[in-house]
Every structure is written in C-alpha cells, then in structure tokens.
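Module 6 notes. Inverse folding takes a fixed backbone as the condition and produces residue identities as the prediction. Think of it as a translation problem where the source language is geometry and the target language is the twenty amino acids. Below is one complete input and output pair. Work through it position by position during the lab.
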C-alpha cells in the first residue's frame, strides 16, 4: 500500500544527497514523496558548501498537516536545520509528528530539529558528531552508530550511512504508525 511521506527542508542549505537519496528510495518503493518548506517556490540544495540543484516545493509548512502524511523525513546539511529550527511552525510540525507515533527519520545535522522540538529526552539517537553535546544536554542518549531506531525515530550520522538510513526508513514506513506507536509506548529499545 502506497504511503505519503513528507520531506521537511529550509529554503536553502539542505545537503543534496541527504534529500535525493531517501526521496529516490521512497518513490522507488511506490510511495509518494512531498517536499515541504516554510516558503513556496524552490529550495536550493548544496553539495557540502557548493550550490547544487534546486527542487520545487510541493507544500508550505503552514499548509502541512500531520494527519495527511504517513512519515516525515528530515534531511541534513548544516544550514538547513539551523534555519528550520528558527521557524516555530516547522518546529511545531516536528513535535506533533513525533507525538503522533508516526515514523520520523533524521540524518546528519537534522536532529537539531528534534532538539529544538524538545523530543529527545530519554531517546537513543545518533547524528553528525558535532550535535552530540546538544543532544545530551537535551536529555538524549547519543551514540556513534550508522543507524539508530528508537520507537518512531530513525537517525543516522552522515551521507556514508545513507544505504542503512534509507533501508531503515522504508522499514519504518512499511510497519506504519500503529506498530511504531506501540513500540514507543512499550519503551521499546533501539536497534542498529
């Protein structure tokens, strides 16, 4: 059964491969991918510090509703989550998504959005190493592993982890919100 997956990014600064590879995995699996951003138009992707391609926004954050989606993906890039965490509607969307029990996957610097949404306390996750202190200060259990799943959260460290990240993302989408919410409610541990 086809699912609808939101990809939340800022207007500029998303790491191109961290958007395009999960997007391809989702669409190749027969699901619908929707690009969500604070403003209409297009988003500028980057390959590290160099401008990459652009991609058209499908839906703005003010028009995005958790109930319309089966999962949320937060790609990284340093500037992307740093800009997004200053948008209170984007932060509220992430917080509501985590609370819903639906799958949420974040890679590299994207877990900054989880810190800003105040949803990492008591959760086990990973990220780009420079976020380690921020995650721990927010009450999260940071680990250095390719992919970490804790309840409805899936996190990875960097672009090199994309194969494992995409596989875990598809698995969480396939299992759906009911099993994810049940696992989270039961205090299910993490898998790597």
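Target side of the pair, the amino acids:
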């Amino acid at each position: 059964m086809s699912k609808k997956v939101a990809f939340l990014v800022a207007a500029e600064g998303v790491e191109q491969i961290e958007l395009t590879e999960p997007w391809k995995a989702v669409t190749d699996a027969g699901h619908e991918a929707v690009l969500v951003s604070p403003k209409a138009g297009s988003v500028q992707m980057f390959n590290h510090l160099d401008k990459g391609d652009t991609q058209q926004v499908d839906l703005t954050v003010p028009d995005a509703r958790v109930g319309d989606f089966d999962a949320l993906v937060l790609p990284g890039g340093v500037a992307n989550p740093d800009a997004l965490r200053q948008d209170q509607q984007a932060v509220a969307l992430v917080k509501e998504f985590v609370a819903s029990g639906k799958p949420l996957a974040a890679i590299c610097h994207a877990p900054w959005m989880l810190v800003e949404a105040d949803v990492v306390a008591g959760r086990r996750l990973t990220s780009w190493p420079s976020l380690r202190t921020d995650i721990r200060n927010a009450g999260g259990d940071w680990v250095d592993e390719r992919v970490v799943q804790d309840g409805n959260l899936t996190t990875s460290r960097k672009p090199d982890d994309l194969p494992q990240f995409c596989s875990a993302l598809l698995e969480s989408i396939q299992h759906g919100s009911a099993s994810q919410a049940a696992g989270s409610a039961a205090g299910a541990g993490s898998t790597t």
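Reference fact for the lab report: The chain has one domain: 4-191.
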